[in-house]
Each structure stands twice: as C-alpha cells, then as structure tokens.
Input
Amino acid sequence: MSWFEQIKEDIQSVFHRDPAARNWFEVLTCYPGLHALLFHRLNHWLWCHDLKWLARFLSTLARWLTGIEIHPGARIGRRFFIDHGMGVVIGETTEIGDDVTLYQGVTLGGTSWNKGKRHPTLGNGVVVGAGAKILGPFEVGENAKVGSNAVVTKEVPAGATVVGIPGRVIVKKPPESEERRKEMEEKIGFDAYGISEEMPDPVARSIRAMLDHMHAVDERVEALCKSVRKLDKDYRDRENMPQLKDEDFDCVRNDETRS
Output
C-alpha cells in the first residue's frame, strides 16, 4: 500500500468512528490524532532506516504540536484512530493491530528499565477508554475493551472488558448461560436492573449470579419431582407452588423507569 492510499485510509477511519467529522478538509486540518499518526508514519520509516535522531526529533515536534507522544519505534497497524488525543503516550516497543481506537490520556507504557519488549501489544479492534493505563509486555486480545481510567498490568483475553484499579477482567458469559438467564428473567417478569454484561455493574452482576443459582435449583427440584412421580403416581408436586404474578414486580419496574 502506498503512502497516499494509507493516508486516505487513515482519514476514512475517522469518519467511521467519529460522528462529529463533517468533511475531509476538516479531518485533515483539525484532528490532532490524525496529525500525530501521520507524523508517526514518517518517523517510523526514519527509525527503521537508522535515522534515529531525526525520528526522535520529529516525534518530539509532533508532541509539541498535538499533545500526543508516540515513540518512533512503536509498530502501528492500519486504520488506527486516536480520538481527542491529548496526553496519549505510546512507548517504543508497543505493537498495535488494525482498527484500534484510543481516547485521550491513554498510556501504553512499560514497567521495566530493561531493554527488549517492555510495552503492551494490542490486538485488532481493541478500544481503550480515556485515561486508561496499560503497562507491561503482555497482549490485549482482539476486540477487547479497556474501561476509562482502568490500570491494566496483565494479559486480557480476546473479547473481554477490563475495568477498575487494578484492572479486573470481565469475560463475556457463554451463550448457553446467557440464554438460561434470560429464561429465568422472563419467568420472574423483569430483567435484572435492565443491565447487560456490556455494562458490568457489580450489583447487577450479583443479582444475575442469583438468577443463575435459582435456575440451577429449579432444574434440580424438577428432576427430584420427576423421580418422586415415578415412585408415587399420586404425587402432585405443583399443587401448592405459589405463582409469580406480574403485579408483584410493578414496584421494581417503576424503580427501573425512574432510574
């Protein structure tokens, strides 16, 4: 791919990820993240051709102009996007895949003064929220998300979300368990706080864990009842079971609506 085609692709990626972008001229002249990336494309080429002082000098100049510091040695893939960008720092041995998005204040740094690989590797499609710090020579898997202000110091699986200090890895539930949970939520008449796994509220996660447990208990009781019916045909296991009524959950639904 030629430099012109790469620049065109970098500009187009801004339109895909920023609804505020209106036209090519505005993006080319008013987006510091794009300016820093274009500087880096040149600086990395100089760095790889052993013009290291010039590469460092131009990267320092780019930092003065954009507020974004990218070491010339960092390897950055296609369609990389830095939104807003002020305060972003990307270290020398960082490796970034395709379609990665960073927000302002992100640090891709190291935890060691030893030479060699000491900065993170970001897989394709990673999104890093504002103020997040990813520190160390480990990999952040494809399509992972790092929450704002999280501090990540260990490997992140593909498709996971990381939040908090220190970063806690939240892996999406398997589809089977999610389906079982939805069945239980429908049975009792409401969704736990209306919050999905994409929004890892700790209270909601606790309630969802209880729903999983209730579903397992319900299956166990049903299995026991079937066994008892085989032993005693006159056994009626559902005669005295209380029914769940929609009006019993009106107050919960009203609370959710107000919140």
Summary: Helices lie at 3-17, 24-30, 32-48, 52-66, 175-188, 202-231, 250-258. Residues 43 and 244 are 66 Å apart (CA to CA). Residues 175-258 form one domain. The chain is about 40% helix and 15% strand.
